[in-house]
């Protein structure tokens, strides 16, 4: 949440105290309480509620876009539409099972049912092919800037982002925390994102705050997939320390020196832009297979969403197989194993209902009576 959390906490405490002093039974809202109320009162689906949580937790633009799509209910709408078609097909199968003595009821033919089930399968496959796991978006690779205090890390951080995200000062040690911002890069697969991280300078800890600062920095370095070691161009290049990621040496503040020996790192200048395009190219080259990207209309799926779609796909496949004879051809007229076919279709419908949240077995029975002149 933007703003000063300590100040915000103080304001909330004052509001609560004022309300209670005036006889108002006020309390702090529980985690997720407003979203939960919206869900339980039918104002949003479970997948939309999950989308709200994902929006709050998003760290990159790709995560945010995916979370917003989830929050709009796109996945639920897809599951509802597909489930609606599947329920209608299931109603035809079950009508043939339960109401064969009614002359008005005409059971669905194996060929017609096979065509419908194939279409349902293809829709699920297309959704899975275009989707990406939310956990992959959350595992965005980190590119970490490290170096001694006043080595130009924060200035370079701002220059790569194209915005004044970090406070820059000639006073060493200005950065006191781990700053993270998504950085867009161009890969062979199109635009993608990595997480650019600015760390406090690697100085000796003199107090508890410094120790916490250095602990956060070490944690970020351990997570990094690419280290950008910043060394001012006018200073000697010392042997690098052991790190758990690939390392690129950057000779920062290149505009301040005219001596540029070869094979001593990439010379960059946040002031003139020297070397920045090459640095972006290097980042893209090193991390193109790990950077996260998301098509504008593609969904990011939580594990339970993907599991439900894959389970529905599996049940539909079994339903199609039940329509075939031993030689692989379809039965010509009637469904030979309608009970097995209906059971598989119902299981697929149950999986879709977990995403849509509004298709029940009673709906199927209702379709039978509304579609056919049963029991007249």
> How many helices does DSSP assign?
13
Beta content comes to 5-15%
The SSE order reads HHHHHHEHEHEEHEEEHEHHH
The name of the CATH superfamily of the largest domain reads P-loop containing nucleotide triphosphate hydrolases
- CATH topology value of the largest domain: Rossmann fold
Q: Order of strands across the widest beta sheet?
A: 3-4-2-5-6-7
Report the structural category: alpha/beta
Mean pLDDT over all positions:
76
Q: What is the number of independent domains?
A: 2
Gross morphology? flat
**Spatial separation of the terminal alpha carbons:** 62 Å
Q: How does the major sheet shape up? A: 6 strands, mixed
| Fraction of residues in H or I helices | 40-55%
Low-confidence stretches: 371-376
How many individual β-strands? Answer: 8
Describe the SSE topology.
Blueprint: H1 5-21, H2 33-40, H3 46-57, H4 61-71, H5 74-98, H6 110-130, E1 132-133, H7 134-138, E2 142-147, H8 153-161, E3 179-187, E4 190-198, H9 208-223, E5 226-232, E6 246-252, E7 266-267, H10 276-287, E8 300-301, H11 303-321, H12 338-356, H13 361-371
Helix pairs in contact: 3-4, 5-6, 5-12, 5-13, 6-11, 11-12
């Amino acid at each position: 949440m933007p703003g000063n959390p300590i100040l915000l906490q103080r304001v909330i405490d004052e509001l609560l105290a004022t309300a209670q002093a005036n006889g108002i039974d006020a309390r702090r809202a529980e985690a997720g309480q407003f979203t939960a109320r919206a869900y339980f009162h039918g104002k949003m689906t479970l997948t939309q509620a999950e989308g709200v949580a994902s929006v709050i937790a998003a760290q990159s633009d790709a995560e945010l876009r995916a979370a917003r799509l989830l929050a709009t209910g796109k996945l639920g709408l897809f599951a509802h539409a597909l489930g609606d078609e599947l329920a209608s097909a299931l109603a035809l199968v079950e009508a043939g099972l339960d109401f064969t003595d009614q002359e008005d009821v005409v059971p669905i033919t194996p060929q017609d049912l096979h065509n419908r089930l194939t279409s349902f399968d293809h829709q699920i496959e297309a959704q899975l092919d275009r989707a990406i796991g939310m956990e992959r978006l959350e595992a965005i690779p980190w590119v970490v800037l490290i170096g001694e205090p006043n080595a130009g890390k924060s200035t370079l951080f701002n220059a790569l982002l194209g915005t004044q995200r970090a406070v820059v000062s000639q006073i060493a040690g200005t950065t006191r925390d781990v700053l993270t911002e998504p950085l867009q890069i161009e890969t062979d697969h199109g635009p993608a994102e990595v997480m650019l991280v600015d760390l406090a300078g690697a100085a000796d800890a003199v107090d508890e705050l410094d120790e916490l600062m250095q602990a956060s920095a070490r944690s970020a370095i351990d997570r990094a997939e690419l280290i950008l070691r910043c060394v001012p161009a006018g200073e000697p290049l010392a042997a690098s320390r052991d790190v758990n990621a690939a390392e690129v040496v950057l000779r920062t503040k290149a505009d301040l020196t005219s001596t540029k020996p070869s094979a001593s790192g990439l010379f960059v200048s946040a002031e003139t832009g020297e070397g920045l395009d090459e640095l972006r190219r290097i980042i893209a080259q090193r991390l193109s297979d790990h950077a996260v990207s998301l098509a504008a209309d593609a969904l990011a799926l939580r594990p339970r969403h993907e599991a439900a779609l894959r389970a529905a796909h599996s049940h539909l496949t079994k339903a199609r197989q039940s329509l075939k004879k031993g030689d692989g051809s379809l039965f010509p007229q009637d469904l030979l194993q309608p009970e097995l076919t209906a059971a598989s279709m119902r299981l697929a419908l149950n999986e879709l209902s977990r995403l849509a949240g509004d298709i029940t077995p009673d709906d199927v029975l209702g379709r039978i009576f509304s579609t056919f002149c049963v029991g007249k």
